[in-house]
Specification:
It is built from 11 helices and 6 strands. It is of the alpha/beta class. Bound molecules: zinc ion (2 copies). Belongs to the peptidase M54 family.
């Protein structure tokens, strides 16, 4: 195992930059927020750790690309940021999305993300994908089928006996497909993929600074290894794109973990048969919960 240890100087420059405008912008941030983000370059930080490389097949060794520091993010002209007219991230279950996406995205949508438990390319001859997003259209579709614990085991009986699509617009053939059990591991993996991909829609490139949600990943094992949180450099990018108080954000994440059941009050259509009241399995979020509490302590010190 190799540890990618950037120097204090490199991380500080990636986060704060040497650009006087961005430096003074950083100085104007709330003192607690700066204290938390400065953890990026504290060698003894127990909140933000260096990236570890476990094998040659890991993303960072097999996909060399330029790292993106905050200044490069900030000055990227292709970067999309929400505006008051388009500021909502819609999620739509797949049963509806194929028809739905043909129509216009809601006017206030920053992006719309389709999610499904169905494997997106279920035939042997096809390569599968975890998800696909069009950054220019602000549209994405993700499958969580391969995140279930049984997918790669012999218990997986993925394909229906016979795929019988009656017409090109009929997607009911998916009805018999494998549906993984909704476990807390699956929920955590799904949250990671969704937030990682939505991060790309906001213009965040793959992170090469610290262990971070925005690290690229080549395989499930590597994806499991990357944390659910953003490192300070990516956190500053996201904050710049959306604008939020970090402490309020972390408290909202805590509320989401601690909230007993699924929140069905969102954009889901009323009276939909898809709306099931499942209990949210959050055991796999325990460590992350502790991590958030530590961050809030730093923010409110
Ligand atoms: Zn990515
Ligand atoms: Zn990062």
């Amino acid at each position: 195992m190799q540890v990618l240890q950037h120097s204090e100087h490199t991380l500080k420059k990636a986060l704060i930059s040497k650009n006087p405008v961005l430096m003074s912008q950083y100085e104007k941030l709330d003192a607690g927020e700066r204290r938390l983000m400065n953890e990026a370059f504290q060698p003894s930080s127990d909140l933000f750790e260096p990236i570890t490389v476990h094998s040659k097949s890991d993303w960072i060794t097999s996909h060399p690309e330029d790292p993106q520091d905050f200044e490069q993010f900030f000055t990227d002209h292709n970067r999309k940021a929400p505006c008051p007219e388009k500021h909502i991230i819609y999620m739509q279950s797949i049963g509806h999305i194929l028809a739905f996406l043909k129509k216009k995205k809601p006017k206030d949508a920053f992006c719309i993300v389709g999610i499904t438990m169905i494997d997106l390319y279920p035939r042997d001859s096809w390569n599968f994908v975890f998800g696909q997003a069009s950054l220019t259209d602000g549209v994405g579709i993700f499958s969580f089928a391969r995140y279930g614990k049984d997918f790669y085991s012999s218990r997986y009986e993925g394909k229906v006996k016979k795929a019988q699509r009656t017409s090109s617009s009929d997607y009911s053939i998916f009805d018999n497909y494998y549906n993984p059990e909704v476990t807390s591991i699956l929920l955590r993996r799904s949250c990671k993929t969704l937030t990682h991909e939505i991060g790309h829609i906001f213009g965040l490139r793959h992170c090469q600074w610290l262990a971070c949600l925005m690290q690229g990943s080549n395989h499930l094992e590597e994806s499991d290894r990357r944390p659910l949180h953003l490192c300070p450099i990516c956190l500053r990018k996201l904050q710049c794109a959306i604008g939020f108080s970090i402490v309020e954000r972390y408290k909202a994440l805590l509320r989401w973990i601690d909230d007993e059941s699924n929140d069905t009050s969102g954009a889901a259509p009323k009276n939909s048969s898809d709306q099931v009241n499942l209990k949210k399995p959050v055991e796999a979020f325990k460590d992350w919960r502790e991590w958030i509490i530590k961050c809030i302590a730093v923010l409110e010190k």
